């Protein structure tokens, strides 16, 4: 006997994008939808959206095209999820999202879709930023507030990324250190303030403030050295993980775990691992 197709399969369109939209609509349908999906809102889904974006970046970093295809699908699902919730609330739907971004790309590329002549990537970057700035200014004016060069730097960005964006915006209007050497002096100054705070009692609130200043100065230094601080920290994280796993293997050769070793023994194993890396 031939197995009957599932009713859900009969109802879903064949075209991939329409199918995905129909899947999400079905998941969010109060009549027979998924209880978990029905409980979600924009705030509860936002962390998953951020996580999926990072997983896309991870697949790219590892040059894993199969994983990239999967992760892009997961990220697309997040867009569809948000659009479906907005549709239910009567705000907008996926078609509105797609239409808005298409119009924005046309508007911001007059050299491609219009008669403006832009020859180089640097010139395009400058034109792009100028156009975005004019859009931000118009938005501020429409909202009845004073425009700022810092408008549009989302508060929800990861702190390291937001720090870099804030500094770049301020630098556009001349609020910047002249060179990396001056920034390095600022890093030393912030480190000295942490040392001073440690010597005078270690107030948690003040220490958080001083550590934040140090991290901000380090991002500034990276920017002046043309180093992406996010990429640099990811590299440092990967290096630490690789070396610590090496320490675990080193100790395992004698039947021990890191918790069985003293700090001196751990440091010795760490140096052995570093030495094998050349």
Could you please describe the fold and organization of this structure?
With 278 residues, the chain is mainly α. The protein is 72% helix and 0% strand. The chain has 13 helices and no strands. Helix 2 (16-27) packs across helix 5 and helix 10 (180-199) packs antiparallel against helix 11. The longest helix is centred in the first third of the chain and has 24 residues, at 65-88. It is globular. The N and C termini lie far apart (66 Å). The mean pLDDT is 91.
Q: How would you describe this structure in keywords?
A:
globular, about 70% helix, mainly alpha, about 0% strand, 13 helices, about 280 residues
Got a strand count? 0
Radius of gyration in whole Å, from Cα?
A: 26 Å
- Largest sheet report: none
Number of alpha- plus pi-helical segments: 13
Q: What's the helix-strand series?
A: HHHHHHHHHHHHH
Structural class: mainly alpha
Percent strand equals under 5%
Q: What is the molecular shape?
A: globular
Helix content: over 70%
pLDDT below 50 for ≥5 consecutive residues: which ranges? none
Please tell me the overall pLDDT.
91
What's the end-to-end separation, in Å? 66 Å
Secondary structure blueprint with pairings:
Layout: H1 7-11, H2 16-27, H3 35-39, H4 42-61, H5 65-88, H6 94-107, H7 110-113, H8 121-142, H9 159-172, H10 180-199, H11 204-224, H12 229-252, H13 263-276
Helix pairs in contact: 2-5, 4-5, 9-11, 10-11, 12-13
Quick description:
This protein has helices spanning 7-11, 16-27, 35-39, 42-61, 65-88, 94-107, 110-113, 121-142, 159-172, 180-199, 204-224, 229-252, 263-276. It is an all-alpha fold and 278 residues long. The protein is globular and about 65 Å long.
């Amino acid at each position: 006997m031939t197995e009957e197709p599932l009713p859900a399969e009969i109802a879903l369109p064949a075209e991939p994008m329409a199918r995905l939209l129909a899947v999400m609509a079905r998941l969010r349908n109060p009549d027979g939808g998924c209880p978990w999906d029905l409980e979600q809102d924009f705030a509860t889904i936002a962390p998953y959206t951020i996580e999926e974006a990072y997983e896309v970046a991870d697949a790219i970093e590892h040059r894993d095209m199969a994983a990239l295809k999967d992760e892009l699908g997961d990220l697309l699902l997040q867009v569809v999820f948000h659009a479906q919730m907005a549709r239910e609330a009567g705000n907008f739907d996926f078609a509105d999202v797609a239409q808005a971004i298409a119009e924005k790309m046309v508007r911001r590329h007059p050299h491609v879709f219009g008669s403006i002549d832009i020859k180089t990537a640097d010139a395009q970057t400058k034109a792009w930023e100028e156009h975005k700035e004019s859009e931000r200014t118009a938005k501020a004016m429409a909202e009845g507030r004073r425009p700022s060069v810092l408008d549009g730097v989302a508060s929800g960005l990861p702190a390291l990324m937001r720090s870099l964006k804030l500094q770049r915006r301020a630098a556009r209007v001349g609020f910047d250190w002249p060179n990396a050497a001056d920034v390095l002096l600022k890093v030393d100054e912030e480190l000295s303030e942490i040392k001073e705070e440690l010597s005078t009692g270690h107030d948690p609130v003040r220490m958080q403030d001083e550590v934040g200043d140090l991290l901000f100065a380090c991002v500034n230094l990276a920017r002046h050295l043309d180093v992406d601080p996010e990429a640099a920290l990811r590299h440092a994280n990967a290096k630490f993980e690789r070396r610590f796993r090496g320490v675990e293997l080193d100790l395992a050769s004698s039947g021990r775990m890191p918790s069985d070793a003293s700090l001196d023994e751990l440091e010795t194993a760490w140096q052995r691992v570093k030495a094998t890396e050349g």
